[in-house]
Amino acid sequence: MRRPDFARRSALAAVPAAMLLAATVSGCHWFKKDTGFDQPIESRPLEVPPDLNAPDTAGAMLLPDAKPTSVTRSSLSAAQAAASAPANGFTVAGDRDDVFERVGEALAGIEGVTIASKAKLLGAYDISYAGANFLVRVSQVDAGVYVAAVDPRGLPAAGEGPAKVVAALKAALGN
């Protein structure tokens, strides 16, 4: 029986060695799953937990049956005007546009009042007085024109400054 020579054995062993070498050098990318996390941060997939996909609406607030009204509405009923600011407003007889101009003149005459802006369409003056910033709103009501001091949210303005301005306006407009 003949023994295989060294060259033949090394040739036979070279084929599997070459395959093993190719598999290790290539990094075994045939077996690797692409997860996307080897990509740049901007292009990686976003994974959101299943319970965070939709908001929980089980305890959502129910809306009242009242009709919605505009925040910038300048005509109010007498009951709404009285309920919105009973302590810091008053009613004057006349036309809203005329009273709006008279309120502007009266505000200019009050020492310490700074008018930041005015919006005739909305019937509001944005003023500051005695360290307080608030609006003087002029609204048409059933009984005439309602003049009141309100904060930027539309609620009655609280404090000494708004009360003094309203009192001065009431005296200046002859009411």
Give a quick summary of the entry.
The protein is α+β, with helices and mostly antiparallel strands.
Order of SSEs: HHEHEEEEH
Biggest sheet record: 5 strands, antiparallel
**Average of the residue pLDDT scores:** 77
Give the name of the CATH superfamily of the largest domain. Outer membrane protein assembly factor BamC
Which term fits the overall shape?
rod-shaped
Structure description:
This protein starts with 5 loop residues before the first helix and ends with a helix. The chain is rod-shaped. 31% of the residues lie in helices and 19% in strands. It contains four helices and five strands, in the order ααβαββββα. It has 175 residues and is α+β, with helices and mostly antiparallel strands. The chain has two domains: 6-52, no CATH class; 78-172, Outer membrane protein assembly factor BamC (TATA-Binding Protein), CATH 3.30.310.170. A hairpin with a 2-residue loop joins strand 3 (124-129) and strand 4.
Key features?
rod-shaped; 5-stranded antiparallel β-sheet; 175 residues; 19% strand; 5 strands; alpha+beta; 31% helix; TATA-Binding Protein
